[in-house]
Amino acid sequence: MEPNTMPSVKRQSGSKLFSTWTNYIFILPIILFMLVFVLFPIVYNITLSLQDVNVYNFKKEHHFAGFENYASTFKDPVFYTALRNSLVFTVLSLVFQFGIGFALALFFNRKFPGRNLMRSLMLLAWMLPVVITASVFQWMLNGDYGVVNYVLQWLGFINEPHSWLSDNGTSLLSTIIANIWIGIPFNMIILLTGLQGMPEQLYEAARLDGASRLKQFRHITLPLMKPTILILLMLGIINTFKVFDLIFIMTAGGPVNSSNVLPIYAYQLSFLKFEFSQGAAVSMIMFIILIVLAVFYLRMTSKEETQ
Prior knowledge:
This protein is an all-alpha fold. The chain has helices spanning 2-49, 68-75, 77-108, 115-122, 124-127, 130-140, 147-155, 171-196, 200-208, 213-241, 245-250, 262-272, 276-306. The chain has a single domain (76-306), classed as MetI-like (MetI-like fold, Orthogonal Bundle). Helix 1 packs across helix 13, helix 2 (68-75) packs across helix 13 and helix 10 (213-241) runs antiparallel to helix 13. The longest helix is centred in the first third of the chain and has 48 residues, at 2-49. The protein starts with a helix and ends with a helix.
């Protein structure tokens, strides 16, 4: 029996080995994609931020600069202006995107005629390319022929046209409004998906106990929606903090850095001043900020799971 069993054992071990290698072959494309398009850019950016690379020595040998680029960045007052604008842009965008999106999700969670059509129309703002949305808002907020000035003058709120995008006090606010308009549908659809997955029995029991709609929202909806809300806010922070195209098209960071944010600042250093290493250092600072936020989010979610 032993001579007959040995070949079968070898065949089984060979088939397991073949199956293991087949699994690795199937995941090889995604591994290559992560290495080429994720890991390599991060490693290259870290290396670039620690060197002295500019337009004059781009093709020459680069010497190690250590943390000089980071020190130069922290000494630049424009960096702190861009950091403050990024924080204001992110916080205000998220507050209104989430608040309005949650209100719309609660509204569309009810059954009424035309609900699906209205919900589909709401998604158009999110489906449109950012370049189109930015161009439309740039036209609407134009100081000479913008429709916003026309409506506000007709309503009597202003007496003369206002240059919304070229005024230091309103340029950042204008980009925030445009970004809020883009993000509302995404927040709405994610929150609506969470609301539709809730058990109706809990609400029926609460109504039988005489709980008002406010108490149902406070004690049932919010606690059950907490994981969805945390994920949505984390995604919103990451996506909003690195917004570049919308602000670049509408104001390009101006006037006088009043709407300048960290992605625009990194672009200006790298492709306008050709200080490639300092631009990489700013990108790494953004990356570190987002990593810290991601770690904080993971600790919060793990704490929730433990409880």
